[in-house]
Amino acid sequence: MSDSVIRERETVVIVGSGPAGWTAAVYAARAELHPLVIEGSFSRTMIPGGQLMFTTEVENYPGFKDGVDGQTLMLEMKAQAERFGTRVVTEDVLEVDVHQYPFRLVTTSGQEVFAETVILATGANANWIGLPNEERLAQSGGGVSACAVCDGALPHFREKVLVVVGGGDTAMEDALYLTKFAKEVVIVHRRDELRASRIMADRAMANEKIRFAWNKTVVEVHGDDVITGVRLKDTVTGEESDLDAGGMFVAIGHSPNTEFLKGVVDLKENGYVATPVAWRTQTSVPGVFAAGDVMDDYYRQAVTAAGTGCMAALEAERWLAHGGAEVHAASATG
Ligand code: NAP
Question: Over the stretch 72-105, which tens digit does the pLDDT of each residue have?
Fold first, then answer.
């Protein structure tokens, strides 16, 4: 759809198009708020559809008893939002100005969009080690993943030796989860001390299916169609060794897509958008809401993202209905 779909003054502009963005769009569209989704472009980190576009099989999204592949799920969500009249622009947002009202957004092509409410749903991306075969096998479903909860139960990981990279709570949680299916889980950590909380570390250490490869980094991922193992490098001695493995789960943190939001809305210390009131998606700027992984550093699931997308749309609707726009317009400087 071309940029000409943009109206002079938009009621609800949704930035980002993962489960949070599309769910917000479905709700806003059904409430006749005529949302515009700026879905991201294929050239940057905020790709249309978000992280699920890289997930081969989603088995924990309710409603799909046989599972659904991530791309299909996202395209269905988009089609559902469009069915109710959602308009879509395939660009990134580079700038949001909340000092004027309606808020002003600028897209990659320089297009200005003026919005009465904005729902931020730009998601987060898992951090990767940055190895060529890691990326290739992650994208092809070849046994490399950054989400144990999403992919760990898939048949090809059963009774295999699985590598978990990282020393934080996520790595411990992933490793513990994977012991349900794996023959053995090897946690590869670059230091000899964990970052994880005591309780999680103790649990992992007490599990007889888990062993630790201390002071090691993964420097190569072996395998053509599927992973067959990894090459480890000792961070102290520099020595290299091979480890046979049928899967690798990278748990070295996530980065929210909030670069363009610095100085716009309050961000938490870890860079995620702050939504200070419990069970609300309102950000530090009235009329600007945040949903999905861009504000959720805890659950990070498709279904929770969809849930907060729904919340954001309902909050935007109520904020507009209760005269939020008028109050804002009166206090805005621009
Ligand atoms: P994290 O705490 O930032 O830990 C990331 C881990 O990855 C660290 O051990 C780090 O090593 C390692 N790492 C980072 N970059 C690396 C690289 N390039 N190569 C190899 N290793 C690398 O991230 P997280 O574990 O995802 O946790 C994020 C937040 O969520 C934390 O606050 C955590 O407590 C919370 N969380 C809580 C729970 C729970 O309570 N159940 C579960 C999951 C997450 P270094 O230690 O050497 O820096």
Answer: 999 999 999 999 999 999 999 999 999 999 999 9
Annotation says 293 is catalytic: no
For ligand 1, which residues put their CB under 6 angstroms from it?
129, 165-171, 173, 190-191, 195, 217, 251-253, 297
* Element spanning 313, H or E: helix 302-321
Give how far the C-alpha of residue 203 lies from the chain's centroid of Cα atoms, to the nearest Å. 27
Could you give the 3-state DSSP secondary structure of residue 312?
helix
Catalytic residue among 3, 92, 147, 266: 147
* Pick from 309, 95, 116, 135: nearest CA to 220: 135
Active site residue 150: yes
Ligand 1 closest atom vs CA 130:
18
Measuring from atom 33 of ligand 1, which residue has the nearest CA? 169
Spatial CA neighbour of 240 closest among 262, 217, 223: 217
Beta bridge partners of residue 201, listed in sequence order: none
SS (H, E, C) 15-79: ECCCHHHHHHHHHHHHCCCCCEEECCCCCCCCCCCHHHHHCCCECCCCCCCCCECHHHHHHHHHH
**How far is it between the farthest Cα atoms of the chain?**
66
202 is catalytic: no
Computed over every residue of the chain, the mean pLDDT equals: 93
Q: What are 248's strand-pairing partners?
A: 144, 163
Taking the C-alpha atoms of residue 269 and residue 290, their distance in angstroms, rounded to an integer, is 16
With a pLDDT cut of 90, the percent of the chain lying above it is 81
- Give the Å distance between the CA of 137 and the centre of ligand 1: 22
- Residue closest by Cα to atom 22 of ligand 1: 252
Say how far apart CA 292 and CA 301 lie, in whole Å: 8
Give yes or no for a contact between 43 and 102, defined as CB atoms under 8 angstroms apart. Answer: no
